[in-house]
Amino acid sequence: MDIVPELSPFFRGPQHLVHKPDSPEAFLLDVGSPVRQSFTYATELPEGHPLFGDMAAPFHDLLFPVEALRHAALFAARQYFRVPPQRITAVSASGTEITDVAPWRRSDGPALIALELALTPVNVITGVPRGLECEATVSIGGRRCGTAGAELVFLSPGVHRGHREAGRRQSEQSLLAGCGQIPVSGVPAPEHVGRRSARNVLVGLPVEGDDERLVFPVDLEAAGQVLGDEVPAALFLEASRQAALMAAAELHGFIPSHALLTRWHGAFRGFAEPALPLRCAVRAEKPDARGAVRNAAGSPTARLRLEFLQGDREVAQVSASVLQDC
To answer: Which of 21, 104, 111, 303 could make an S-S bridge to 26, C-beta 3.0–4.6 Å?
Structure first.
């Protein structure tokens, strides 16, 4: 078994990634063969963290296990699957779901989170994968309560550069033609997007779009201060969550400070550019947006579709569910 502390400086406190090899050879040689490998990641959920500890509702932040999965998978790709460090990691799809709400409620003491990871290499060439399929079962306090997954692609610098340049040209041309320009009408109060600190508000107030959509400008400058200078996958989850909470309030009368994102799935169509305007368009999943559906426990749930666009170019497509905690 391998125990790796301080897996990522993005998180605080000790973290452990334990490799559970399926063969004696992998155990003795401490290397992974290009087949499915299992790991366990464990740490304490952060308290007082400027991002993960800033939830307005009394829940742990769903962003934390998704980011933990990504960081653990990237570490394993380099350490166990021998993916060269010059390869650039792109997320082609990602998703997460809360299957049991109760363990996600914050308590007075520390809470331990664990991810049971299964990492499967794909498109293996000369023993090195060009991608990784990642699946995880999430437990808090020893109780299974969610799932997370991602599809990673490892690109050569040239291929990555070519994709980015082509997408940037398309976005710039459409923006110059006037497509995707929306007025910025202000910044919502933090509690309206489920946060307590104004620092973590990443979307602006929505404007009415066509086809009964609400369109939110995404503040990439604020996102860069919180998440880094580029446009990481975490931005789409967090901006989706904030826009979804406000849309659920607008469409269904939800109270954002008492709402919880319980399901999220994103498919990424290209690379978003930090220097270009980004907007998020949200609509109800069903054509009739007059009321939310109810889950098995009878609580109202809003099901939403979201698109992230730069100019006329779609960079991500998301489906999400928001639960009203009542």
So the answer is: 21
